[in-house]
Specification:
Blueprint (H helix, E strand, L loop, with lengths): L1 E5 L3 H13 L3 E5 L2 H7 L6 E5 L7 H11 L4 E5 L4 H9 L4 E4 L4 H14 L23 E4 L2 E4 L4 E4 L2 E3 L3 H10 L7 E2 H9 L8 H14 L5 E4 L3 E4 L13
Parallel strand pairs: 1-2, 1-3, 3-4, 4-5
Antiparallel strand pairs: 6-7, 7-8, 8-9, 10-12, 11-12
Helix pairs in contact: 2-3, 6-7, 6-8
Amino acid sequence: MRLLLIEDDDRIAGPLTEGLGRYGFTVDHVRTGAAGLADAEVAPDLVLLDLGLPDMDGLDVCRSLRARSAVPIIMITARGEEADRIVGLELGADDYLAKPFGVRELIARIRAVTRRAGAPAYAPAGPAEAVDAHRPASGAQALGPLVINRRTREVHLDGRQVALTPREFDLLTYLAEDPGTVYSRQQIMDTVWDPHFFGPTKTLDAHVAALRRKLGDAGWITTARGVGFRLTVPGRRTTSEGVS
């Protein structure tokens, strides 16, 4: 699904583009209303429109887009006043999302808008679901004695079920996208939490510690010091790996 993101703040556009990309979206990013109107000529599937643009008001961009196209429009803005929401919706926007927001919330809005627009609902795979083309149709991924089933959100180790919280499961499946690959702390926070998470990063360490404890061996999740974490089958680690 191709999205057109009209957003002048790279601090928002960069993480948002990266986060949506992990879920299978193609994002074209422009920084001005004029560029957005020009890029919309190539018919994106959906437009993400900031209202606070440097060259023109986003409401005017919304009006122009709607005058010539039925493309779904989701306004994303720091403006939280009811009047702005009402005006935007009356001009033809399909939804309104106030900053800050998470990627998962935005994806839910995208799916809802596309359903209402009559298009087939886009159901992006989670970041861990879109990777392994050789994974069995059951959705299960086997890593030695560890079996992860994304469809049922169940984890089994040596045949016994491991009870995980939803966040622990999301963290495990993200690391399992590409076992052995180091994912930076920021990549993990942006994907398993979201790019606009402002809580302490120590929450990641707490979840890693909980996973290690529940999996019964700290070697399942190893630390690349100063970078992040990787998922490995214990006994297959390299000398550069640690578990601190």
